[in-house]
Amino acid sequence: MKEIIWFGRGGQGAVVAAQILAESAYLEGFKGVTSAPTFGPERRGAPVTASTRISEDPIRMFSQVEMADIAIVLDDTLLGVVDVKGRVRKGGTIIVNTSCKPEDAAINGDFDVATVDATGIALKLRLLKEGAPVINTPLLGAFAKATGIVSLENIEKALRSKLPAAVASQNFETVRAAYEGTMTKKAQG
Amino acid sequence: MTDARIITGNQAAALAARLCDVQVIAAYPITPQSQLAEMLSLYVESGQLRAEYVRVEGEHSAMTVCIGASTVGARVFTATSSNGLLYMHEQLHWAAGSRLPIVMCCVNRGVGAPWSIFNDQQDSLAQRDTGWIQMYCRDNQEILDTIIQAYRIAETVYAPVMVCYDGFVLSHTMMPVVSPTPAAVRKFLPPYKPHTILDSNNPMTINSVLLPNRRPDAEGVLCDGYMEMRYKLQNALNRSPETIREVNRQYAEAFGRDHGGMLWTHRTEDAEVILTSMGSLAAEATVAADALREEGIKAGVVGIRVFRPFPEKKEVVAAYRNAKAIILFEKSVSYGYEGGLCSDLKAAFYGSGINAAIHDHVAGLGGRDVKARELVEAVKSSLARIAEGERELNTTWLNCHTE
Q1: What is the spatial distance between Cα B288 and Cα B282, in angstroms, rounded to a whole number?
Q2: Residue A189: its pLDDT value, please?
Q3: What CA–CA distances, in Å, run from A30 to B179, B372, B378?
Q4: Which residues pair with residue B275 across a beta bridge?
Q5: B164 pLDDT exceeds 50?
Q6: Which terminus of chain A, N or C, has less C-beta within 10 A?
Q7: In chain A, which residues have their Cβ closer than 8 Å to the Cβ of B284?
Q8: Contact A40 B117 (CB under 8 A)
Q9: Whole-number Cα distances in Å, A16 to A141, B155, B173, B202, B383
Q10: What is the β-pairing status of strands A47-55 and A68-73?
Q11: Which of A15, A62, A153, A155 would you mutate first to test chain B, the one with the most B CBs within 10 A?
């Protein structure tokens, strides 16, 4: 089973991204998928998390994810606020939305690091909501590139099952661009 | 593998109510049930469900509307949580006493004071003696399947059924749920036939005051007193396990999913240590049992699916026959004694020859997360104490600062 934690700020779409990832993984053939928000009230702008579990077999574990195999950070300012590394297993993967290269992302330790400029991609491809760039869907493309757990094809299917056709296409353009623009660095360890 | 939808427990429950062609819904929103009430009102408003959604000012009225609608022959649905359920308490007795097949979801949440919006099962456990059948769900698939079964059970037994599932842990967590077709559900669940219909063309008084003894009615026919009518409710619930098992069997035959009737087991064949719980925590316990087996401890799980009526002695004793130790995890407590499930289980063992050590852990009150690894540790700690001769303990509060 792979456990994934999404670190974002309220309003950035961490919860929805966790759901679309679960859908994509199910389409990929994983029989067990769950996605959960951090339980309770949240507010816009504050650090929030969501989680996805992906397993070959149906999932019987519904407690909150404690340690992740993969962390996705929607906002690189969170790296200075939240203990992301403390929630990722050794040898795990940390994916960050940043304009930095993985070497410059200030994530030391026994982790694979992947970076993608999801904000830049969303702005360039005009994927905006209420004037702000939509960064959660492009990060699905970075997840596909960095982990290989889900294919672009199934992310596209999952988006199309949730969104009107034109909106899904626009979202998927950013997924593909993020897939192509993701840079990775293997753990030193 | 594309036949399932990835949905929350609340969405699964709303979908099930729609598949059951409910005709009247009266629900008052409360966290963590709110999404369920919202979805049902959306179904009604958009015409996806031909039902009357009655907006009410509170949960007491919600259940009162359900009682009224069921009495005039409608299939009704409601849902609530926590203090909302407590506010309904008087009408819960009324629904059961009237023998109305109302189905309600209890999206389990801790009760105030102090306030908590988070999950435990104190709300539904506190309704134990209202005469409702209570069923607990392990995951979102089971929520959908159990609601469909609940209408068959309720309309056969003529008793209301409470379908309980853990707030947030299931209500807000998405997972794959397979939905049967509306046609298949209609075949499984025939239309509701009321035992008595209140009809203005045939006026009658229902549930008028009964005096202590039996009395003849206006035609001189000797009628039940209060005690006879209450005996009949007890008798109906006592006999309902047969119906519950049969409905589960027919459901498994029709839809390919068997949730275990009154209780279910996981690796109990040779189990010397049996973990027991209800709802999503029982699912988590199966992960713990698997982990304990990897350490060489012969562990299994008995999940209690139906808490009222309590599974019959014969079935309980058979499920636990080889156990040397029984470790319970309960998300509620009967203050001043122990967990309610623990007391009932011990009572079921009386005179059966089962003399296993029993440890009762109160866990996860007010949403405190309970992880499989914590269950493993609690079981190992209990086993160590049992080995030292502590066969029975005061309730242990798991992961709680008790100093």
Answers
A1: 10
A2: 58
A3: 18, 22, 31
A4: B301, B327
A5: yes
A6: C
A7: 60-63
A8: yes
A9: 14, 39, 12, 54, 43
A10: unpaired
A11: A62
B170 contacts in chain A (CB < 8 Å): 62
Does residue B286 sit at the A interface (CB-CB below 8 Å)?
Answer: yes
pLDDT of A33 higher than 50: yes
The C-alpha of A61 sits at a distance from chain B's nearest C-alpha, in angstroms, of 5
* B257 SS3 class: coil
- Per DSSP, chain B holds a count of helices (H) and strands (E) of 12, 17
Pick from B6, B107, B177, B369 the residue to mutate for testing the A interface (most A CBs within 10 Å): B6
Structure token pair of residue B365: 């009150």
SS3 B91: helix
Sketch out chain A's domains with CATH numbers.
Answer: 2-185 (3.40.920.10)
Site from A51, A60, A150 to mutate, B interface, most B CB atoms within 10 angstroms? A60
CB contact at 8 A, A171 and A137:
yes
ipTM greater than 0.90: yes
Residues of B in contact with A64 (CB under 8 A): 369, 371
Tokens representing B56 are 């009410």
Smallest Cβ–Cβ distance between B1 and the set A29, A34, A61 belongs to: A29
Q: Give the three-class secondary structure for A45.
A: coil
d(CA A165, CA A173): 12
Tell me the helix, strand and coil percentages in chain B, rounded to 5: 40, 20, 40
pLDDT tens digits, B53-73: 999 999 999 999 999 999 999
Query: CB of B1 within 8 Å of any CB in chain A?
Result: yes
